[in-house]
Amino acid sequence: MIDFHGMWTLQGELFLLMALGFLFRRRNLAGEAFQKGLAEVVIDLVLPCNIICSFQTPVNGQTLRQTGSILLASLAIQLGCWLLAKVAFRRCEAAKRPSLQYGTICSNAGFLGTPLAEGLFGAQGALLAAIYLIPQRIAMWSLGISFFTQVEGRAFWKKTATHPCLIAAGAGVVIMAAQIRLPSILDQTIHALGSCNTALSMFLIGMIMSKLRWRDFLDRDTLCFTAVRLAVIPALVLLGCRLAGMGGLSEAVAVLLAAMPAGGTTAIVAAKYGGDAEFAAGCVTVSTVLSLIAIPLWCLAF
Question: Is this structure's pTM higher than 0.85?
Answer without folding.
Answer: no
